[in-house]
Write a structure and sequence with these properties.
alpha+beta; OB fold (Dihydrolipoamide Acetyltransferase, E2P); 2 domains; five-stranded mixed beta barrel; about 15% strand
């Protein structure tokens, strides 16, 4: 398909129009800020349901995204709606981390905070910016995970994620990296490694996306393929849905899920599967409508812009590179990396103030190492669950592999020249 025919594709034109309307500010979508009969500055207590896992922020604190159900002041109680962020000290969340002390300062059990838990927080210091946030020194479970099968699944997910984190903690820095790559929890990731990835233009590798999902989907598809092509697709979809449920639906991971689900639905109804640009455009339109607040997130912009660059520009880069580099997989990798960089550079410059062109070269080198690290880590984790006494042995193997990833990222970080 020629470039002109690509950009005149109706789905692409629709997606481009939606993007222009959203990012130009013509169409604004409110994130659903806090709404109640009590002035936010007078609120002393908030109840609600945790929307996603707590995220570590600058200063060592954690941010808990909360969907409010009620608020109270010193004189009144009111129902409430909308989203708000609760900023809590690290000790509240870390008390449930491996090695943490499972009690608060008052001696009551610290809750295991994760998506789906109903909590109550004593709050202060209302901040209206960024969607609204409070600070809290105490938080407690006030309703559990909900009733029935959904509540049981939410609780099981939180417990499994904690157990996963606990086992990997014994593997040191290698366990911290594997935890980030398989569950999206970056708390255990070495700050030095994260900084190396940033300077080397590799931050996208730490963000859960299609690369991570395709490993599980591909393995499940191969296993289910012995029962036929349709069975293989079903196994693949089930695997990626399970992975997304466990890791949490970040913008890049939800985009990757659409990339698997749309062809599956098309095949189920015997429809023609969309090509790369049509699939990207359709995923963008569905994503923007289903979770409109994601459109404003940097990971959303980088995820879609990088794939758009690869879809539209990698062919042109490959034509230029192939006569010089005659090894097909190297020229293809460099072409895709260059196309992604060109498409994401404007976003990176506007948001972060810089773009790292060394990522064009570093990604084809480090990404395969990370894929091998994930595969080896998944096998090692399964073996350690089956035979816990082997965990130190596999931990040693994983740390050796981690050293290779760390060394490669450090090399390209120095090569970038970024501070």
């Amino acid at each position: 398909m020629s470039f002109f025919r690509s950009v005149t594709n109706p789905l692409f034109a629709s997606a481009l129009l939606v993007a222009l309307l959203r990012y130009s500010g013509v169409v604004r979508v409110s994130p659903g800020s806090l709404s109640s009969l009590i002035e936010p500055s007078s609120i002393v207590s908030v109840r609600g349901v945790v929307e996603s896992a707590p995220k570590r922020i600058r200063g060592g604190s954690y941010m808990i995204p909360l969907r409010c159900t009620s608020v109270s002041s010193r004189r009144a109680v009111s129902s409430a709606s909308g989203a708000v962020s609760i900023i809590v000290p690290a000790r509240i969340i870390d008390s449930r981390s491996p090695g943490g002390i499972f009690t608060s300062a008052r001696g009551s059990p610290a809750p295991l905070v994760d998506a789906g838990l109903s909590v109550e927080a004593s709050v202060s210091a209302w901040n209206p910016y960024g969607g609204g946030s409070f600070r809290s020194e105490s938080i407690r479970d006030c309703g559990g995970w909900g009733r029935g099968i959904p509540g049981a699944l939410r609780r099981a997910r939180a417990e499994w994620r904690r157990s996963f984190r606990r086992l990997l903690a014994s593997w040191g820095d290698a366990g911290g990296l594997l935890l980030a790559l398989l569950s999206g929890m970056r708390d255990g990731t070495s700050p030095v490694l994260a900084e190396n990835f940033r300077r080397a233009g590799l931050s996208h590798i730490l963000a859960l996306s299609g690369m991570h999902m395709s490993l599980f989907g591909g393995a499940a598809s191969a296993a289910g393929g012995i029962f036929g092509r349709r069975a293989g697709r079903f196994f693949s979809l089930a695997a990626v849905v399970g992975f997304a449920w466990f890791a949490g639906l970040s913008p890049s991971l939800l985009r990757a899920l659409f990339f698997v689900a749309v062809p599956f639905v098309a095949g189920a109804f015997r429809l023609r599967e969309p090509d790369g640009l049509a699939l990207l455009s359709l995923s963008f339109l569905i994503h923007s409508a289903a979770v409109p607040e994601h459109v404003a997130e940097v990971s959303f912009m980088l995820s879609y812009s990088s794939l758009l660059g690869i879809t539209l520009l990698s062919g042109a880069f490959r034509s230029a590179v192939s006569p010089v580099i005659r090894v097909p997989w190297i020229s293809s990798s460099l072409s895709a990396s260059a196309a992604a960089f060109v498409a994401t550079a404007p976003v990176s410059v506007l948001v972060f103030g810089y773009a790292s062109p060394v990522g064009i070269v570093s990604t084809p080198v480090v990404a395969p190492l990370v894929v091998a690290f994930i595969v080896l880590g998944a096998v090692s984790f399964a073996a350690s669950l089956a035979a816990p006494f082997l965990s130190p042995f596999f931990g040693g193997i994983m740390n050796a592999m981690y050293s290779a990833v760390f060394g490669a990222s450090a090399f390209f970080a120095e090569l970038s020249g970024l501070p």
